[in-house]
Design a protein that fits this description.
The protein is 36% helix and 28% strand. It is an alpha/beta fold and 236 residues long. A 6-stranded mixed β-sheet has the order 6-7-8-3-9-10, with helices on both faces. The structure holds adenosine-5'-diphosphate (ADP) (2 copies). One adenosine-5'-diphosphate (ADP) binds next to loops. This is Phosphate transport system ATP-binding protein.
Length: 236
């Protein structure tokens, strides 16, 4: 199945064209890696999937980005709902300066959940899902800024999972982390793909080879190659 279909996608920052004719499908419940040199459009592409680029003035999109059946730039869609279905994690861990608990509860509360027991359950499940619960269950009321960088990044993953998305976008999620924290996130990504469709930007070919099932190779705003990761990497 394909959760995300991209057809003839062009993207412009003002007069500058950052993506040209991008066409490929992102498979469901797999890890898709976006690789290629710096500045070739990987982040831009990632941010078209949840319409994050809309926040930048003067951007323009041509073509189709179809997420779970909706053509998200052409159909009338609810962007808040889209961003609930499509979670995002960034390069720098960016927890809110709030307690661990409130970081996770933030999204569900914004979507109208107020029941304390329900929120407790979501917080626990999300932290367990992100392989963080055992490390923080005794200090949920403490500031998220006080935990390690790797823990903060897993917290950000838990925060994304708390609103029950189908798709998880990750923009170089391990670039700011040490090797041990990176390995934990990679293991976690491997576990999460059973339940989520994951799209990850990485500048590391090794990381793409280790954790992805499908790879799209970007070069100067175009996808020059895409396919199962094994095939992409076995080529001479
Ligand atoms: P990276 O390649 O590490 O993802 P960049 O340096 O390309 O990061 O971009 C960092 C931030 O600066 C992003 O938010 C990006 O949108 C913005 N940015 C990058 N290039 C430009 C540009 N030419 N004009 C304005 N903003 C830019
Ligand atoms: P990558 O993720 O592959 O490093 P980006 O998607 O960040 O590439 O950037 C692709 C191109 O778009 C680069 O030339 C970058 O400078 C430009 N760009 C990125 N963000 C902006 C922005 N906000 N405004 C203008 N140009 C941008």
């Amino acid at each position: 199945t394909k959760t995300i279909e991209i057809k003839d996608l062009d993207f412009y920052y003002g007069d500058f064209q950052a993506l040209e004719n991008v066409t490929f499908d992102i498979p469901e419940n797999k890890v898709t890696a976006l690789i290629g040199p710096s500045g070739c459009g990987k982040s831009t592409f990632l941010r078209t999937i949840n319409r994050m680029n809309d926040l930048i003035d003067g951007t323009r999109v041509d073509g189709d980005v179809i997420v779970e059946g909706d053509d998200i730039y052409k159909d009338e869609i609810d962007v808040v709902e889209l961003r609930k279905e499509v979670g995002m994690v960034f390069q720098e861990p960016n927890p809110f300066p709030k307690s661990i608990y409130d970081n996770i509860a933030y999204g569900p509360r914004a979507h109208g959940i107020t029941d304390t027991e329900k929120l407790d359950e979501i917080v626990e499940n999300s932290l367990k899902h992100a392989a963080l619960w055992d490390e923080v269950d005794d200090r949920l009321d403490q500031s998220a800024i006080g935990i390690s960088g790797g823990q903060q990044q897993r917290l950000c993953i838990a925060r994304a999972l708390a609103v029950d998305p189908d798709i998880l976008l990750m923009d170089e999620p391990t670039s700011a982390l040490d090797p041990v924290a990176t390995a934990k996130i990679e293991d976690l990504i491997d576990d999460l793909k059973e339940e989520y469709t994951i799209v990850i930007v990485t500048h590391s070919m090794q990381q793409a080879a280790r954790i992805s099932d499908y790879t799209a190779f970007f070069l100067m705003g175009e996808v020059i190659e895409h396919g199962p990761t094994q095939k992409i990497f076995e080529k001479p």
